[in-house]
Design a protein that fits this description.
The complex is a heterodimer of chains A (about 250) and B (about 230). With about 250 residues, chain A is of the alpha/beta class. Helix content of chain A is about 35%, strand content about 25%. Chain A is globular, with a radius of gyration of 18 Å. Classes of the chains: A alpha/beta (about 250), B mainly alpha (about 230). The interface of A and B includes residues 81, 84, 97 and 156 of A.
Chain lengths: ~250, ~230
């Protein structure tokens, strides 16, 4: 499904937290339809990189070109661009004061993309797809972790994004619930959704990715097709990482 | 002290003057309290949000506002609103009740704003991030996601603020504004039965505050169980 159109491009991205230089000049491109997984040790900058893409973290230096627009420019309305980038968090962050249906319909309606009725139809269709249709009017505290994360994915999809960003979507889940969430993500990338996925699930990364990025010490150390990356790692740092996790 | 006589006097006072205590005193005390807390809450939300503003100047001004109001006695503030402000701003042709009500609102707003601020900060930052990542503006995120959750967390504190304010309105009797304490002053003046009237007045205050504080407690218990 991958095309040659550059959907996201970062140019010399730098980000520090205090003295910690977390991103040290990242240059990366995600093409439309591409599925990119980001792996690497904790503290290597994976999540920060992902969170920079929709400016949840604002880089000190560098550019992020999304769909041809530099969203790091001053005076840009970031909300409009974020509406086209879905994000899924480690801790789900579903809205506990709204029922499942409202969790999904709130944003499309508030941002005037859809009427309440249209949004509800879409919510039902999406919930059907991820097997949560019977939870339509439940409150989130009645859901399991895996169900919450599926809800969070559906909530992001309801905005009909151009790209989905996943920040360790299964790290906070009980082991028996990891599979159901990964299945939903797999189903999604099979529809051609451009995705950037930060994950510790190596088998999953190998299965779904068009390209794998290995990040450590604030930059992309190695990248390539999953079979090359896992079959024939080049850098000592990546070899060392693989020997620990595989 | 003859408790028999006191008891008889209390009964007599209540029979003769209950309507002044209740229909005038309690009515005006409740009216003042509702106005002060409700408008104070609205103003308090605005103050709380401004306190978290990105602008240093706004943050500084709001901090001064909060510290001045919380650091000076309410009675002093009432004097300023009652005697000084009408002189400075003759265009505001408010009656005395209104000036007192405004003073109480302003006072309440400073306390309520701190309650709101802690409530807003108690909401997980992930909620804001999720809402912003979906493309909601910071205003929409505040109104639809953060405040509704914050309000639930701070309802007990707001209830306590209401109880505090209910008692504080008694200071308005300094200006004979007609509240429950004013009712006491009137009746004491007419009957010279100070102790008896104080007992009645105190009991009426208790009848209002005690059920309210029990309500707040019950709500807190319910919230704790809901979190489990």
């Amino acid at each position: 499904m991958q095309t040659n159109k550059e959907l996201i491009k970062t140019v010399d991205l730098h980000k520090s937290f205090g003295k910690l230089h977390v991103l040290q000049g990242v240059n990366e491109t995600v093409k439309k339809g591409e599925v990119v997984t980001v792996i690497g040790p904790s503290g290597g900058g994976k999540s920060t990189f992902l969170r920079c893409l929709n400016l949840l973290e604002v880089p000190e230096k560098g550019q992020i070109i999304f769909d041809g627009v530099d969203i790091t420019q001053k005076g840009i309305n970031i909300d409009l661009h974020r509406q086209k980038m879905g994000m899924v968090f480690q801790n789900f962050n579903v809205f506990p004061h709204l029922d499942v249906c409202k969790n999904i319909t709130l944003t499309p309606v508030l941002t005037k993309k859809k009427t309440q009725a249209e949004a509800e139809d879409m919510a039902k269709e999406l919930l059907n797809r991820v097997g949560l249709i019977d939870k339509l009017h439940e409150m989130p505290n009645k859901l399991s972790g895996g169900q919450k994360q599926r809800l969070a994915i559906v909530r992001a999809l309801a905005m009909e994004p151009e790209v989905m960003l996943f920040d360790e979507p299964t790290s906070a889940l009980d082991p028996e619930m990891v599979g159901e969430v990964l299945d939903v993500i797999k189903g999604l990338v099979n529809t051609g959704m451009t995705s950037v996925i930060v994950t510790h699930e190596m088998r999953f990364a190998r299965e779904v990715s068009d390209r794998v990025l290995f990040m450590a010490e604030g930059n992309v150390m190695e990248s390539g097709k999953p079979e090359d990356m896992f079959g024939n790692p080049q850098t000592p740092r990546f070899k060392e990482f693989l020997s620990k996790v595989l | 002290m003859d408790f028999g006589v006191i008891g008889a006097n209390i009964a007599k006072l209540w029979t003769n003057y209950w309507h002044i205590y209740i229909l005038e005193g309690v009515a005006i005390t409740l009216k003042l309290t509702f106005i002060a807390v409700l408008l104070g809450a609205v103003l308090g939300v605005v103050v709380a949000i401004l306190k978290m503003s990105k602008s240093k100047i706004i943050r500084f001004l709001i901090t001064v506002y909060i510290e001045v109001i919380r650091g000076t006695p309410l009675l002093l503030q009432l004097y300023i609103f009652y005697f000084v402000l009408p002189e400075i701003f003759p265009i505001f042709d408010f009656n005395e009740f209104t000036w007192v009500a405004i003073a109480l609102c302003i006072n309440s707003s400073a306390y309520v704003s701190e309650i709101f601020r802690s409530g807003i900060q108690s909401v997980d930052i992930g909620q804001t991030e999720a809402a912003r990542s979906l493309g909601l503006s910071s205003g929409q995120t505040m109104m639809r996601i953060v405040l509704p959750q914050a309000v639930k967390n701070i309802l007990p504190a707001l209830g306590n603020e209401f109880i505090m304010m209910l008692k504080e309105t008694s200071l308005a009797s300094t200006f004979f504004i007609g509240d429950l304490m004013t009712a006491h002053l009137k009746i004491k003046g007419a009957t010279y039965l100070m102790l008896e009237s104080l007992v009645i007045t105190g009991l009426i205050y208790l009848c209002m505050t005690y059920p309210l504080s029990k309500l707040v407690e019950a709500f807190e218990r319910k919230m704790k169980n809901a979190d489990k």
